[in-house]
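FORM 12-B: Structure-to-Sequence Request
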C-alpha cells in the first residue's frame, strides 16, 4: 500500500470520518454534488441541473469516458447501428433537450432541407414506420449541449472505486485518476449529494456460450453482438460460411440485416441459422388493448416498452400500483421485441424464400468444436428432437446486462452503503430515484439507468427514462434547496437559450 491509497481501516469501515481519510494521505476535495458514470445518465442530470440554475463549479462528473456518448456510441456501433443508421427511439426523445421540441424530425428536416421526416412523423405509425433519428444526430446534439452547459469543465476523468457514507452527513467518493496525472493514486470527493449512473454492469453471455468460450479459450468464432466482431463479416466476405444467430431483439434484427446486406452487396453465399428460444407465431397479449404484433419468430414493438410506459397511462398506473400489481404489469409488458421496419421485413421475406435463412425454435444444450475447427451447436426442440448445426461463427444477440454485483461500485454499495436489492436484483429506489437505505444525514444518493430497473418506473434504461429520473431528482434537490425549481417562466426562458445555443454562465 502506498501513501495516498486506501488503508485496510478504510476498506473495512462502512462510514468514514474525515480524519480517517486525511490520515491515509488521500487528498479530499469538496464538491456539493458528484455524478458517477459520465454517460448519458450523468449528462442528462447535470444538463437539467444547469438549466435549473446550478453553477458548473458546484458539480463534478466522475467518469472513465471522454464524452457522455462514448459508451453508447461504442455499443451502438458494434451492434450494427453505426452513425448513419437509425436508432430505436422516437423523434422527441432527445437527451440534449428536455423539452423534446424541436424534435429530431424537425431538426433533420431543417438540416437536410427536406419535408420527408416531417411527413413521416405526421403519418406514423399507420402509413409509415415510426420516425427515428440517425445515431450520428444523437451524438452531434449531445456534443452541442455539452459545450453549451460547460460539461467539459465538470468532467473529472478516472475510475470510481467506491462511494462511502461520511460521519456527519454526505458521502466520500473515491476516484482513481488516470495514472501519472496526480501526486497520489486516489483522490476523494466529499459531497452532500451523489448520483450514480454507471450503465450496464457488464456483458452477459448465455451460459452455454460462456462455458464454451472458457473451455476453449475461444474469442474469435463465438462472439457477443455487443463486442467488436467486424472480423466475422470480413471473413464471410473472403470465404462462404455458416453463421448461427441467437436472439430475437433489435440487435438480432440488426445483425441479420448486416448479414443480408452483405449478401446482397457482395454477392455472398452466407448461410444463416437463426435460433429462437421462444418462437412467436402471431399477435399475442391478454386483450385487445394489450396486444403485440408478431410472426416468423419475432415479437414486434416500435420501442423497448409500450409508448405509454415512457410518459402515458402505463407510467401513471405503474407509479401508483402496489408491488404485486407492478410485478404483474411488468410481466405483461416484458419480453424481447424488435421494431417491424418495412425494408428489413422485405429482406427477411426474400431470405425465407431462399434456402439460406433457417429459422429454428430450439433450446441449445451445448456447443462443441468439430475436428475441422468448426462449431457444432447441439439443440433440442419442443418435440424433444435433437439437432446439430455446424457453423463457422456464432453471434450471441441475447443480452447485455450482467448482474449488479459484477459492478464494483454497485457491489460496494450493497455491502457497505446500506443499499438493498429489489425483486429484480437492482437497487431499490424511492419516487425521486433516491437509493433506499443509502441516505446519510441529509445527504442523498440517487441513481438512474439500468441499476434502477424493477421500481416505480418501467422505462429507466432509455433516453426518456434518463430525463424522467433527472427531472425527478432535480425536483427533490430543489425541495432541499440545492437548485431552483423548473417553473414555467424559467423553463420558457431556458428553452429560448437552448434554441439560441446560448452558453450557460
Ligand atoms: C445498442 C444500444 C442502443 C440503444 N438505443 C437506444 C435508443 O434508441 N433509445 C433510447 O432511449 N435508449 C437506447 N439505449 C439505451 C440508452 O443507451 C441507455 O439508456 C443510456 O445510455 C444509459 O445511460 P447511462 O448513463 O446509465 O449508461 P452509459 O451511457 O452506458 O454510461 C455509463 C458510464 O459510466 C461509466 N462507468 C461505469 N463504471 C464506472 C466507474 N466505476 N468509474 C467511472 N466511470 C464508470 C462507463 O464507462 C460509461 O461511460 C440503447 C442502448 C444500447 C446498448
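FORM 12-B RESPONSE
SEQUENCE OUT:
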Amino acid at each position: 500500500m502506498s501513501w495516498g491509497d486506501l488503508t485496510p481501516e478504510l476498506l473495512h469501515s462502512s462510514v468514514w470520518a474525515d480524519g480517517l481519510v486525511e490520515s491515509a494521505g488521500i487528498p479530499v476535495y469538496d464538491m456539493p454534488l458528484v455524478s458517477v458514470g459520465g454517460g448519458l445518465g450523468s449528462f442528462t442530470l447535470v444538463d437539467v441541473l444547469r438549466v435549473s440554475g446550478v453553477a458548473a463549479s458546484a458539480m463534478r462528473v466522475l467518469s472513465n469516458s471522454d464524452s457522455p456518448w462514448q459508451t453508447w456510441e461504442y455499443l451502438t456501433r458494434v451492434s450494427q447501428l453505426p452513425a448513419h443508421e437509425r436508432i430505436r427511439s422516437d423523434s422527441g426523445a432527445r437527451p440534449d433537450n428536455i423539452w423534446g421540441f424541436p424534435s429530431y424530425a424537425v431538426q433533420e428536416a431543417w438540416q437536410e432541407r427536406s419535408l420527408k421526416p416531417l411527413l413521416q412523423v405526421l403519418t406514423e405509425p399507420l402509413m409509415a414506420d415510426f420516425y427515428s433519428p440517425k445515431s450520428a444526430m444523437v451524438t452531434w446534439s449531445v456534443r452541442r449541449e455539452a459545450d453549451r452547459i460547460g460539461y467539459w469543465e465538470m468532467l473529472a476523468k478516472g475510475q470510481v472505486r467506491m462511494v462511502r457514507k461520511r460521519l456527519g452527513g454526505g458521502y466520500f467518493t473515491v476516484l482513481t485518476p488516470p495514472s501519472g496525472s496526480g501526486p497520489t493514486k486516489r483522490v476523494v470527493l466529499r459531497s452532500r449529494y451523489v448520483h450514480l449512473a454507471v450503465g450496464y454492469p457488464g456483458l452477459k453471455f448465455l451460459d452455454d456460450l460462456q462455458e464454451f468460450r472458457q473451455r476453449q479459450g475461444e474469442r474469435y468464432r463465438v462472439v457477443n453482438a455487443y463486442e467488436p466482431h467486424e472480423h466475422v463479416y470480413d471473413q464471410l466476405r473472403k470465404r462462404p460460411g455458416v453463421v448461427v444467430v441467437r436472439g430475437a431483439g433489435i440487435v438480432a434484427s440488426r445483425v441479420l440485416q448486416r448479414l443480408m446486406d452483405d449478401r446482397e452487396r457482395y454477392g455472398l453465399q452466407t448461410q444463416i441459422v437463426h435460433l429462437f428460444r421462444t418462437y412467436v407465431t402471431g399477435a399475442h397479449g391478454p386483450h385487445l388493448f394489450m396486444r403485440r404484433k408478431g410472426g416468423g419468430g419475432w415479437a414486434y414493438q416500435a420501442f423497448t416498452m409500450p409508448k405509454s410506459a415512457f410518459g402515458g397511462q402505463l407510467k401513471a398506473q405503474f407509479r401508483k400500483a402496489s408491488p404485486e400489481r407492478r410485478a404483474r404489469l411488468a410481466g405483461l409488458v416484458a419480453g424481447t421485441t424488435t421494431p417491424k421496419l418495412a425494408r428489413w421485413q422485405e429482406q427477411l421475406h426474400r431470405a425465407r424464400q431462399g434456402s439460406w435463412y433457417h429459422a429454428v425454435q430450439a433450446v441449445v444444450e451445448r456447443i462443441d468444436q468439430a475436428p475441422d475447427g468448426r462449431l457444432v451447436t447441439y439443440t433440442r426442440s419442443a418435440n424433444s428432437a435433437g439437432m446439430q448445426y455446424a457453423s463457422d461463427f456464432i453471434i450471441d444477440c441475447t443480452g447485455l446486462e450482467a448482474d449488479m454485483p459484477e459492478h464494483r461500485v454497485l457491489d460496494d454499495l450493497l455491502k457497505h452503503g446500506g443499499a438493498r436489492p429489489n425483486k429484480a436484483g437492482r437497487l431499490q429506489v424511492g419516487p425521486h430515484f433516491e437509493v433506499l437505505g443509502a441516505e446519510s444525514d441529509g445527504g442523498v444518493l440517487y441513481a438512474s439507468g439500468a441499476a434502477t430497473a424493477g421500481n416505480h418506473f418501467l422505462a429507466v434504461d432509455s433516453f426518456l427514462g434518463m430525463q424522467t429520473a433527472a427531472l425527478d431528482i432535480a425536483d427533490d434537490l430543489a425541495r432541499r434547496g440545492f437548485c431552483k425549481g423548473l417553473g414555467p417562466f424559467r423553463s420558457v426562458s431556458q428553452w429560448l437559450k437552448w434554441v439560441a445555443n446560448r452558453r450557460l454562465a
